[in-house]
Specification:
GO terms for molecular function: gamma-aminobutyric acid:sodium:chloride symporter activity; metal ion binding. The chain is α+β, with helices and mostly antiparallel strands. It has 18 helices and eight strands. Strands 1, 2, 3 and 4 form a four-stranded antiparallel sheet that branches. A hairpin with a 4-residue loop joins β3 and β4.
């Protein structure tokens, strides 16, 4: 009788690694078996890909909705709704209550109120807590074996990469996403400032803090990536793969090395939740503010209902991104799509381009709309569309002590 070969997945963990695709050769005549090949995967990778995402075989196999993710996504959108339905001022209070419920009364003694323009945003712990946790993770990360290799990989420049267009595209994408440029978020939040507020000073502070935070977080990530590479006996370049799962691989690996890991894990994912909510409700605030200002008579008195409808529709769209795997999530990227070693078919590339252009075409589409709506000839349209609105010009003159007559064109 011939020998039997089988492939299995070993569910147990050894030294932070999980055994995958174990090729077992068995001889039933002699009751012997041997493992002829063995592939290992880090426990964090295994938990993300096999348990949370349940990656399918390909983009054509969408699979069912991950109901655990659907429930958490619904919870996040409900929290987002209650964060913005009463305006930006109430949002900071919502974050404060979340932290107070988790941390307790000692937190109440350290909260303080920050004045943002002409309203008080009660941000309390939200802005400072991520820095405290990142500092703790950095202190622990640099003491792990292999951390020096990861940091050396992070700070060692590879100037040849500057010749690659993808590097510049990724850099621009990061800047636009990080600062929220072109999304209306900064305009919406800036509308709460006083007219005489020093926006140049605010811009310099925001840019400096944002870039410094990115560099600081890079040290935290790559110290842990070096540790993961040391564990897996792989080069740092192979472990430091970009993607949405990096925050769920590098940071949890560092948290597990801390005393009282479950407590730190809860605080870490609480931090991720609040950071994600910050980005989510700021983006929603930009859209909602623009719509309400465009049609104030229709939407201002029904703002809570309008926000609820927008959040519900956004939740329905988000359900397509929480099926088995992250293939549909990656289709949103406008660059040629690739997840690990899986190559997407041509039609998914086409779908990705259509999805990306759907947001980009809003800007020229609105330009064409407002151009067709504006009366007059070519010169008159240009003169009307590039001028400052009368109410803004009048307010600026009033603040400067000048009272010129306002004439309509």
């Amino acid at each position: 009788m011939a020998g039997i070969e089988a492939y299995g997945v070993q569910a147990w963990e050894m030294g932070g690694l999980v055994a995958l695709r174990c090729k077992i050769s068995a001889n039933p005549l002699h009751y012997t078996a041997s493992v002829t090949s063995l592939a290992w995967q880090h426990a964090a990778d295994y938990s993300l890909e096999r348990r949370a995402l349940q990656i399918s075989e390909g983009v054509e196999y969408v699979g069912g909705i991950r109901w655990e993710l659907a429930g958490t996504l619904l919870l996040v959108w409900i929290m987002c709704y209650f964060c913005i339905w009463k305006g930006v001022k109430w949002t900071g209070k919502a974050h404060a209550h979340i932290y107070s419920a988790v941390i307790g009364s000692p937190y109440k003694r350290v909260r303080r109120k920050l004045k943002l323009g002409n309203f008080y945003g009660v941000v309390y712990f939200t802005a400072l807590f991520p820095y405290v946790l990142l500092t703790v993770l950095l202190i622990r990360g640099v003491t792990l074996p292999g951390a020096a290799e990861g940091i050396r990989f992070y700070i060692s420049p590879n100037l040849s990469k500057l010749r690659e267009s993808e590097v510049w595209i990724d850099a621009v994408t990061q800047i636009f996403f990080s600062y929220g440029l072109g999304l209306g978020t900064l305009v919406a939040l800036g509308s709460y400032n006083k007219f005489t507020n020093n926006v140049y000073k605010d811009a310099l502070i925001v840019c400096s803090v944002n870039s410094s935070t990115s560099v600081f977080a890079g040290f935290v990530i790559f110290s842990v990536v070096g540790f993961m590479a040391h564990e897996q006996q792989k080069p740092v370049a192979e472990v430091a793969a970009s993607g949405p799962g990096l925050a769920f691989l590098a940071y949890p690996s560092a948290v597990l090395q801390l005393p009282g890991a479950p407590v730190w894990s809860c605080l870490f994912f609480l931090m991720l939740l609040c950071i994600g909510l910050d980005s989510q409700f700021c983006t929603m605030e930009g859209f909602v503010t623009a719509m309400v200002d465009e049609w104030p008579q229709l939407l201002r008195r029904r703002k809570e209902i309008f926000i609820a409808i927008v959040c519900f529709l956004s939740y329905l769209v988000g359900l397509s991104c929480i099926s088995e795997g992250v293939f549909i999530f990656n289709i949103i990227q406008w660059t040629p799509i690739k997840y690990l070693d899986y190559e997407y078919p041509w039609w998914s590339h086409f779908l990705g381009w259509i999805t990306a252009l759907s947001s980009m075409l809003c800007i020229p589409g609105y330009m064409i709309y407002i151009w067709m709506k504006t009366p007059g000839d070519l010169a008159m349209k240009i003169k009307l569309l590039v001028r400052i609105e009368d109410d803004v010009a009048a307010l600026r003159d009033k603040m400067s002590g000048v009272s010129p007559e306002i004439t309509s064109i």
